[in-house]
Amino acid sequence: MSAYDTLRHFADSWALLLMLGIFLGLCFWPFRPGADARNREAATMIFKDDNDGE
């Protein structure tokens, strides 16, 4: 078995599962318990230095 076949088999199986796990982890990261304060801060960051037109 050549190195190409070995790496292709790895990429088709375990690497695919690893990438799926990382993707799902990143998708659900903002919804984890305790993330509300950081999410709210990130959502309102553009208004931090806003002085209402004064």
Labels describing this entry:
54 residues, mainly alpha, elongated
Descriptive report:
With 54 residues, this protein is mainly α. 61% of the residues lie in helices and 0% in strands. It has helices at residues 3-12, 14-28, 36-43. The protein is elongated. The mean pLDDT is 88.
Secondary structure layout:
Layout: H1 3-12, H2 14-28, H3 36-43
The helical percent reads 55-70%
- Strand-residue proportion: under 5%
Number of β-strand runs: 0
Shape: elongated
Cα radius of gyration in angstroms: 21 Å
Q: What's the number of helices?
A: 3
* SS class: mainly alpha
Residue windows where pLDDT falls under 50 for at least 5 positions: none
Major β-sheet annotation: none
Order of helices and strands: HHH
What is the average of the pLDDT values? Answer: 88
Distance between the termini: 72 Å
Please outline what is shown here.
With 54 residues, the protein is mainly alpha-helical. Helix content is 61%, strand content 0%.
